[in-house]
Amino acid sequence: MTDDDLDQIDRNRRHFLGVATAVTGLAGAGLAFYPFLASLQPSARAQALGSPVEVPIGSIEPGEMVRVLWRGKLIFVLHRSDGMLEHLDDSIAMLRDPNSEVVEQQPDYTANATRSVKPEFLVVEGACTHLGCAPIEDFEVRPADSWGGGFFCPCHGSIFDLAGRVFKGVPAPTNLRIPPHRFVRDDLILLGQDTGAV
Ligand code: FES
Known about the structure:
alpha+beta, three-stranded antiparallel β-sheet, globular, binds FE2/S2 (inorganic) cluster
């Protein structure tokens, strides 16, 4: 990795720290409601039992992300826009495992260039692979900064791109984990179940 790469990672970290300060309060408020929501939503009860969870995706606009629970884990479902996909490899030289070679981090059918079944939908665990904090999203594409959008972990500064691929030089050792899932229909994902080869 070059000095320029390290400078770029530092710039991305500084940007994220500003964002993280602003959202920490909101995140705390959201967590306070989590038990309440879990007590109401049938899908949350299903995931507690380890059952697959249906995730409707038809109303998720390009550029938007929803969070769901599955087996007690926070899962991000991101509808990547054309612009996001276009810049997905902007930071590829700074990634530790750009080709998903750590096989434990994803099912075989997502060990591809976009780490997904369908390029427009990223389904990934919202748990940093360092110590498990929930990463914060920064989806603004900034080509001048070699930043195609991604996630920042506020706990110790790990950075991931929009395929959940970890940057070099951060505490997290591996890419974010992709859970098993499959498309039941174009507008419905089944989380926690796959056919082995989608
Ligand atoms: S838990 Fe994410 S960087 Fe430590």
